[in-house]
Design goal:
The protein is of the alpha/beta class. The chain is built from nine helices and ten strands. A hairpin with a 2-residue loop joins strand 4 and strand 5. Helix 2 packs across helix 3 and helix 7 packs across helix 8. The longest helix has 16 residues. The protein is globular and about 55 Å long. It binds adenosine-5'-triphosphate. This is ABC transporter ATP-binding protein.
């Protein structure tokens, strides 16, 4: 954990370009232990790029990125064992069974095979997909695959979690279980980065909301602070205001008239 109270993630003047296209334009952030961060922004804002840099799977950035107080460019990969990640889209090994996949992931993160096996089986059953434990992932429904990814991200009890649209495909009962798990994890001191386009959920679960637009941070604060700053009621309205999007009716009308042609 992080007994000294220093930030678990610290980012200074982070810049990233793909070719001549600058997609992160000077991000500065300090994230404390136990915070649930709603990390939101329009499509292409740079959210996944930031997360991939933090995960150590994207190089070539400028600026300083520290996780658990250590500069991730130092080459140490130990910190990755303390991180869990649910990507927006994932290539899981479909020909493996859930058991093979989860024990493999657990062992990669330093767990003993039998410990990973026992824990994975119980977590699958708690998520109502226990019957699929020995089945090939290729036979899973979309929601079952998503639950598998969530379990894989949590199995090794990481200290920082990155979730990208984690509720995608989950039924209403599982959503309630997952939200409750999130709030317990945060109470235990886990830090959670939550990226989603579902504003109602982000508004409810986040202690702090960061809005990214065009590679820059447009807002950073609690929901109440953002509300005060924008004089708007819901996070959806705040988001639309801060990302300069107020023509949705005109666009929808034009869309309909094109369909009618
Ligand atoms: N491998 C790549 N090569 C070139 N450009 C890329 C690459 N990956 C991302 N980009 C560009 O970087 C920008 C930021 O992408 P990123 O995936 O970080 O956005 P995002 O905020 O996660 O978007 P979304 O909400 O759609 O998932 C986009 O303009 C995207 O086209």
């Amino acid at each position: 954990m992080n007994p000294t109270g220093e930030p678990v993630v610290s980012i200074r003047d982070l810049r990233m370009s793909y070719g001549s296209k600058e997609v992160l334009r000077g991000i500065n952030l300090e994230i404390q232990r136990g915070q649930v961060i709603g990390y939101i922004g329009p499509n292409g804002a740079g959210k996944s790029t930031t997360v991939k840099i933090l995960l150590g799977i994207l190089d070539g950035y400028q600026g300083e990125v520290k996780v658990f107080g250590e500069d991730i460019s130092s080459g140490s990969i130990e910190y990755k064992k303390r991180i869990g990640y649910v990507p927006e889209t994932a290539d899981v090994y479909e020909s493996l069974t859930a058991q093979e996949y989860l024990t493999f992931v657990g062992e990669l993160c330093g767990m003993d095979h039998d410990a990973a096996d026992g824990k994975a089986k119980r977590l699958m059953s708690l998520f109502s997909i226990g019957e699929g434990y020995s089945a090939r992932i290729s036979s899973f429904s979309k929601g079952m695959k998503q639950k598998l990814l969530i379990i894989a991200s949590l199995l090794h009890n990481p200290d920082i979690l990155f979730f990208d649209e984690p509720l995608s495909g989950l039924d209403a009962n599982s959503v309630m279980v997952f939200k409750e798990v999130l709030s317990e994890l945060s109470a235990q001191g886990k830090t959670i980065f939550y990226s989603s386009h579902i504003m109602e959920v982000v508004e409810k679960i986040s202690d702090r909301i960061i809005i990214l637009n065009g590679g820059r941070i447009m807002a950073d604060g609690t929901f109440d602070e953002l509300k005060e700053q924008c004089s708007e009621g819901s996070l959806e309205e705040i988001f639309n205001q801060l990302t300069g999007f107020d023509q949705y009716r005109d666009i929808a009308n034009e869309f309909i008239s094109v369909l009618k042609e």
